[in-house]
Amino acid sequence: MGLVDLNDNNDIFEAKGMGIDMDALSTILDTKIIAISRGNYNENLIGSVEALYRAGIRAVEVTFEQDKGLEMTADSIKALSERFYGRMAIGAGTVLTLEQLECAHSCGASYIVSPNTDQEIISATKKLGLVSIPGAMTPTEIVTAHKLGADIVKVFPAGLLGAKYFKALRSPLPNIRLAAVAGITLSNLADFAAAGACAFGISSGLFKTDMIADGRFSEIERIAREYSNRSMQKND
């Protein structure tokens, strides 16, 4: 697949400019929602993402499936990166290995998301000039991820932990961008927004399996528009 050599600092990193992808980071912070696709491929994925785009979603994360090879995720990231170039920020999720990171980078991913905080992954992500969004749950993990260079720290699983927990984290850590990921719904999104979430990672709430199977992309668009509108509402 022509994976990049993370040790080749002279050629690769100079070519990438050694800076993070500010467009991707700004897109996520400005539009708030990262739509997380897990197990959706080919026409089903394209149709779903087109519906999300029409609804105002501007960031999509395609996850690696650990029990499968790289090819399907790689093809999906590449297809979306090409089709939505200049229109959406496409990233890779559940990135646990350097091989997955290199694969995502070579296919056009502009940000890297993981469920955990891994120094090696964060460091390599930053060297490649990509936005780093590692996962964390405790204050210790969050501060560690931030010190390692994370651009946003994904609080995971936010839905199970609750908005009150999220707000309690924000109080002593107002300088760290925290995204609420997993279990975010139309019912609790406003609570997490009020608790200080800078962004929201949403999977099954947007990628509805039954709607995708039936080709009901207009319904996905309607639901996505609700998420998008609620995420942008100001909290008093």
Strands, count: 9
Radius of gyration from the alpha-carbon trace, in angstroms: 17 Å
What is the overall number of helices? 12
Oligomer: single chain
Strand line-up of the largest beta sheet: 5-4-3-2-1-9-8-7-6
Mean model confidence by pLDDT: 91
End-to-end distance, in Å?
50 Å
Produce a short descriptive summary.
The chain is an alpha/beta fold and 236 residues long. The chain has 12 helices and 9 strands.
Secondary structure layout:
Blueprint: H1 9-16, H2 22-31, E1 33-37, H3 42-54, E2 59-63, H4 71-83, E3 89-93, H5 98-106, E4 111-113, H6 119-127, E5 131-133, E6 135-136, H7 139-148, E7 153-155, H8 158-161, H9 163-170, E8 178-181, H10 189-194, E9 199-202, H11 209-214, H12 217-231
Parallel strand pairs: 1-2, 1-9, 2-3, 3-4, 4-5, 6-7, 7-8, 8-9
Describe this structure in words.
- The chain has 236 residues and is an alpha/beta fold.
- It contains twelve helices and nine strands.
- It has helices at 9-16, 22-31, 42-54, 71-83, 98-106, 119-127, 139-148, 158-161, 163-170, 189-194, 209-214, 217-231, and strands at 33-37, 59-63, 89-93, 111-113, 131-133, 135-136, 153-155, 178-181, 199-202.
- A nine-stranded parallel beta sheet has the order 5-4-3-2-1-9-8-7-6, sandwiched between helices.
- β1, α3 (42-54) and β2 form a beta-alpha-beta unit.
- α3 crosses α12 (217-231).
- The longest helix has 15 residues, at 217-231.
- The radius of gyration is 17 Å and the shape is globular.
- It starts with 8 loop residues before the first helix and ends in a 5-residue tail after the last helix.
- Mean pLDDT is 91; it is low at 1-18.
